[in-house]
Design brief:
The complex is a heterodimer of chains A (363) and B (409). Chain A is of the alpha+beta class and 363 residues long. Chain A contains eight helices and 20 strands. A six-stranded mixed sheet of chain A has the order 6-7-8-3-9-10, sandwiched between helices. Chain A has a five-stranded mixed beta barrel with strand order 11-12-13-20-14. In chain A, helix 2 packs across helix 3 and helix 3 packs across helix 4. Chain B is mainly α and 409 residues long. In chain B, 70% of the residues lie in helices and 1% in strands. In chain B, strands 1-2 form a two-stranded antiparallel ribbon. The two termini of chain B are 47 Å apart. The chains are: A alpha+beta (363), B mainly alpha (409). At the A-B interface, strand 6 and helix 2 of A face helix 15 and helix 16 of B.
């Protein structure tokens, strides 16, 4: 088997629970050996169902999943050799931390001495060396999370699945654990499939992100690719902050296109949409890429009315009414001598053609 | 305000602030507390008192009770003064018509005790120079040490007679505690039988109830509710009706025998009732919900993710069940089993109706002494022995399982 061959691949996988609605529609996805892949999407988008099918707790109603080239169709969950970290950790309350971590080794009938050594090593990896004799109930949420992680890693599975493992932690701890999980992934060379609905978590941790929506992978790309080259308006809106302006396509010229906004202004943009004049498109503009009162040469200029200003310490958010979109947000870097716009002011905004992406309008 | 040095006053403030709340909380539990004290604690204490207090004879025969202390040399019959007192008392109580009370009390301890007392009373002369000779002349039993030992033990105010009898023991004339001859001993066997029946019923309940509770806990809510109603249905029927229904079902010409014959399992009707089998079947059926309910509520709290986690970690479904699920249900099994066992210990109606003579449990005898023979001392003593044995067992259970590990819901 060559290195480039995917570790896991979903081929035409479908899943329905009630025989009427497909929760997962035609999923095709390759997961590479050693990568950190995140399934990102709003709740009900099919990401957890996909993960559960990979773990073996749900059966695909159509299609096939392979792990290391072998079909998983007839492999029960306990023979798949896949570690799973659950949302609520699912630590066994009647066992100590050590017994919990030793569980996968005990059911594999490893010698006691080997079990002990491996448990100690796993506890070291998650920095919980001293807490082996405690019960899960006596640990904090973050510590329980680490135990769950150690338990899923200790038997050196081919693949580790994590289903919103940080959902129950507070923000600070969550951010800390994100980095820690990332480090463990890098150090141990694991293949991780991670499920979350938190886009900043996905951006922080992942090598690649699969954005799920309505049972379909909308885009599979690196964090940077998703942010800068969203394939459609759902991805553009879901990843990072985004402003949308509706318009009609006038013409496409290689990578660039011209879009007529609803007030008649002509805008130059990057083309991320299909071809053909007269097509409805949405312009995607990131808040930090739009300039207020631009000086000098700039491709596009629009007039805006200030609705609200919000102070954010290092920057200021200005909510504007631009061509009928009254929720158009611009991030303004804070400078000492800068005049802060007041609600009701009229000002001009400008942006470069490369910072404005024309996408097919959502149906 | 500095905290150092003001600790006492802070505590006082806290107490004052909390006082109203505590009083209100206490007022709310007061009705229940009074109810429990009046209907539960007082009767139990009174029952325990009745098992050791023995005043019947002392009330009816006050002179004997007072003078029996003069009987110091236990190797021969009491001194003449005691015989004098006995004669006076028998005559007095015969006239006052209270003699039957004394006769009944002596009858507990001596065979033919009633006859002895009544014969003596009837033949008693007006006067006698030597009451000892006269009384022994009337009935030679008065010259026996055993008779006097019984009179002495019955003279109160406290006695160990009933408690000893409840464990098949009695005191001899010279004060030794000996086992009652096997022909007359029954209570130890009844007590053992009570515990054995309760234990087997508990075991049957666990074996039958576990799968049902599991089914209830794993079904979708709508179906689970329907099944739950089926489990609870017997609860809404009177105990007597349910027991009577079993009599109908289990009798030799009943549905079960007919069905078994029709299916070819047996050739002729099997005896399913008025024996131990009937007791086990009926009691298990009646007590099953008490096991299912606490077990169900514990199982309901076990998230499915535990089993999924166990499987993902490499445990086969059987192994996951034994290593993960079963240990987590133990508090429920413990609670249900304890509940069923303790309820079974006190069962009376069901064994009385579907059991044979050799299947009666201790409650039957308590009821017999309370309502049939009006021997409250014996009833109380049996009750006290049952209570002690149960508490002892509870203590052992607490030691083995740990009562904090028991979850009723």
């Amino acid at each position: 088997m060559s290195v480039s061959e995917p570790l896991v691949s979903f081929r035409g996988v479908q899943k329905t629970y009630d025989g009427e609605m497909l929760v997962v529609k035609d999923l095709n996805l390759d997961i590479r050996r050693g990568e950190f892949l995140t399934m990102l999407g709003p709740s009900g988008s099919g990401k957890t169902t996909s993960l559960m099918m990979l773990a073996g707790f749900e059966v695909p109603t159509h299609g096939e999943i392979t792990l290391a080239g072998q079909s998983l169709r007839d492999t029960p969950p306990h023979k798949r050799d896949i570690g799973v970290v659950f949302q609520n950790y699912a630590l066994f309350p009647h066992m100590t931390v050590e017994e919990n971590i030793a569980f996968p080794l005990a059911v594999r009938r490893l010698p006691k001495s080997e079990q002990k050594a491996r448990v100690a090593r796993a506890l070291d990896v998650v920095k919980l060396g001293a807490l082996g004799a405690r019960r899960p109930g006596q640990l904090s949420g973050g510590q329980q999370q680490r135990v769950a992680l150690a338990r899923a890693l200790v038997f050196e599975p081919k693949l580790v699945l994590m289903d919103e493992p940080l959902g129950a932690l507070d923000k600070q701890l969550r951010e800390h654990m994100q980095i820690e999980i990332k480090h463990i992934h890098d150090n141990l060379g694991l293949t991780v499939v991670y499920v979350t609905h938190d886009q900043s978590e996905a951006l922080t941790m992942s090598d690649r992100i699969a954005v799920f929506h309505e049972g379909v992978v909308q885009q599979l790309d690196t964090p940077q690719g998703l942010y800068e080259q969203p394939r459609n308006s759902f991805v553009a809106n879901f990843i990072g902050e985004n402003n949308m302006l509706g318009g009609t396509l006038e013409g496409v010229d290689a990578e660039h296109c011209r879009v007529r906004l609803d007030d008649g202004t002509l805008v130059e943009a990057r083309a991320g949409c299909g071809d053909g004049a007269g097509r409805r498109v949405s312009l995607s503009l990131r808040p930090e890429k739009v300039e207020l009162e631009p000086q000098g040469e700039i491709a596009n200029r629009l007039t805006a009315r200030v609705k609200e200003t919000i102070y954010h310490g290092d920057h200021m958010r200005v909510r504007l009414d631009v061509v009928g979109n009254d929720d158009f947000t611009v991030k303004m870097r804070y400078r000492a001598n800068r005049v802060v716009p007041k609600p009701g002011d009229t000002l001009s905004i400008g942006f470069a053609a490369r910072d404005c992406l024309a996408l097919d309008a959502p149906h | 305000m500095p905290l150092a040095g003001t600790g006492a006053s802070l505590k006082a403030q806290l107490r004052r602030a909390e006082r109203m709340r505590k009083l209100r909380a206490f007022a709310l539990v007061l009705p229940l507390l009074l109810f429990i004290v009046v209907t539960f604690v007082v009767p139990i204490l009174d029952m325990l008192r009745l098992s050791v207090v023995d005043r019947d004879l002392a009330t009816v025969w006050p002179h004997v009770a007072r003078s029996i202390g003069a009987w110091t040399d236990r190797s021969q019959v009491p001194p003449p003064s005691v015989f004098d007192a006995l004669a006076t008392d028998i005559r007095d109580s015969y006239r006052a018509r209270t003699l039957p009370l004394a006769a009944r009390r002596l009858n507990y301890a001596i065979d033919e005790g009633r006859t002895l007392v009544f014969t003596t009373a009837r033949r008693l002369p007006e006067t006698s120079a030597d009451w000892r000779a006269t009384l022994i002349g009337i009935d030679p039993h008065w010259g026996e040490l055993a008779t006097w030992a019984a009179v002495d033990q019955a003279s109160g105010p406290l006695t160990s007679f009933f408690l000893l009898a409840a464990v098949d023991r009695h005191k001899t004339a010279d004060g030794h505690i000996v086992a009652t001859p096997s022909g007359q001993a029954i209570y130890v066997e009844v007590l053992t039988r009570t515990f054995k029946v309760s234990f087997i019923v508990t075991l049957l309940c666990v074996v039958l109830g576990f799968p049902v509770a599991y089914l209830l806990a794993t079904q979708p809510p709508r179906r689970a509710n329907l099944l739950m109603i089926l489990v609870l249905l017997p609860f809404w029927t009177s105990l007597l009706v349910r027991t009577a229904a079993w009599i109908v079902l289990l009798q030799e010409q009943g549905i079960i025998n007919h069905a078994l014959i029709w299916l070819g399992v047996i050739d002729s009707p099997v005896r399913l009732i008025y024996n131990r089998i009937g007791v086990y079947i009926a009691m298990t059926h009646i007590l099953l919900p008490f096991l299912i309910l606490p077990l169900y509520s514990v199982m309901k709290g076990i998230k499915p993710s535990y089993m999924l986690a166990a499987k993902s970690l490499g445990a086969s479904p059987t192994e996951a069940f034994i290593r993960v699920y079963l240990p987590m249900t133990l508090p429920g099994i413990g609670a249900g089993a304890l509940l069923v066992f303790i309820l079974a210990l006190g069962y009376y109606i069901t064994p009385a109706l579907v059991g044979g003579a050799a299947d009666q449990m201790i409650s039957y005898f308590i009821a017999f002494y309370t309502s049939d023979s009006v021997n409250w001392g014996m009833a109380s003593a049996l009750g006290a022995v049952l209570l002690t044995a149960t508490l002892l067992l509870y203590w052992v259970y607490d030691r083995l399982v740990g009562i904090t590990n028991v979850k009723l819901g």
